[in-house]
Design a protein that fits this description.
With 344 residues, the chain is an alpha/beta fold. Helix content is 40%, strand content 16%. The chain has a single domain, classed as Rossmann fold (3-Layer(aba) Sandwich). The longest helix has 21 residues.
Length: 344
């Protein structure tokens, strides 16, 4: 079997944050400074670093990219600053601290809570609905891309293309309910203050250490049974998701635009597991029976506006399989994509 050398965390971030030419072109057209709120999350570093690198390539070294987080891990803050991102510690649930955030013409709001909702639902409501109120008021004059999720939709038939932006939302559990709340709060201030916004309904971002593909591959590698109850899913490479989010800063509007963001394929959990089995040299095991519905999104509108993602499914599978074969470190945070109750 071919030997694989896993990338370290710094090299993975360099790979994920490489800005495509269309991102460089976009930031060249976006005057002013940028803020990434929730930069300490799993996508925040990639997004902030891609912004910084794109601005440098566009000849806009004077533009500031500020990464905002509580920064509970000092190494995360140091990594951002090493890439040229300014960091600003802030508890976004504290009104006084939010009021003192630096100005920005363009804001990407990634802050929020998903995991731990079952054990502390009140915290999830604070992070996903109160924080947006504070942020929307602080950055009322900015353009804001608000990260949301496909979990705001009801389950869609696995026989169809998935939910579209005009489909009604569904309050399927505490997490989905608070995500709808986040969108509603931001939308309130968009209509009240004229703030230009875009609801970035993403599902699901993947990279070599984290995501639905990693969840499936890790179970194949470990010989653990894969639950196929939620038998279909969408995904997109994290770098592509971040690139599209930056480009969406040119698509903000009031009232807010809504955009589904994911890859073009509707993927079978069983088929993906079989492919990982071939690449990893292991026989997949399964439990459960595929339900006729799943959280699926139709991202054809995003492809019309932004074009298709740059990274193919084969490239994503190869990256994940190679990282696991090489003994690469995983983030150890299962996505729980198979969960159907809406509880996380």
């Amino acid at each position: 079997m071919q030997e694989h050398t896993p990338l370290n965390a710094h090299d993975i971030e360099r790979l994920l944050s490489t800005p495509p030419p269309r991102v460089v072109e976009a930031v060249r057209r976006l005057p002013g400074d940028f803020a990434v709120l929730g930069v300490g999350g799993k996508m925040g570093t990639t997004l902030a670093v891609m912004l910084r690198r794109a601005l440098d390539l566009a000849g806009r070294r004077e533009a500031i990219v500020t990464g905002v987080s509580r920064f509970s891990r000092a190494e995360g803050r140091a990594a951002l600053e090493a890439f040229g991102v300014r960091t600003h510690p802030c508890d976004l649930a504290d009104a006084a601290q939010v009021a003192n955030l630096p100005p920005a013409a363009h804001v990407l709001h990634l802050a929020g809570q998903k995991f731990g909702t079952d054990s502390a639902p009140e915290t999830t409501w604070i992070q996903n609905t109160v924080v947006p109120s504070l942020v929307a008021q602080r950055y009322r004059d900015a353009g804001i891309v608000v990260f949301s999720t496909g979990c705001v939709y009801p389950f869609a038939s696995t026989a169809g293309p998935g939910s579209t932006e005009t489909d009604p939302v569904a309050f399927n559990g505490e997490y989905a309910s608070t995500c709808i709340g986040r969108e509603r709060v931001f939308s309130h201030y968009s209509r009240r203050c004229g703030t230009r916004q875009l609801m970035f309904r993403l599902n699901y971002a993947v990279e070599p250490r984290y995501g639905v593909l990693v969840d499936i591959a890790a179970k194949v590698w470990a010989g653990e049974a894969i639950d196929v109850s939620t038998g279909w899913f969408n995904c997109i490479w994290q770098g592509d998701a971040c690139a599209q989010a930056i480009r969406c800063l040119e698509l903000v509007s009031s009232p807010p635009r809504i955009l589904n963001v994911t890859g073009p394929e509707k993927l079978s959990v069983r088929a993906v597991a079989e492919e990982f089995g071939r690449r990893l040299g292991r026989e997949p095991r399964y439990c459960g029976v595929e339900a006729p519905t799943a959280w699926l999104a139709d991202a054809s509108r995003a492809r019309e506006l932004l074009g298709p993602p740059d990274t193919s499914l084969d490239q994503m599978l190869a990256a994940v399989a190679g990282h696991i074969l090489g003994g690469g470190t995983l983030l150890g945070r299962p996505t729980h994509f198979e969960t159907r109750s809406g509880s996380f």
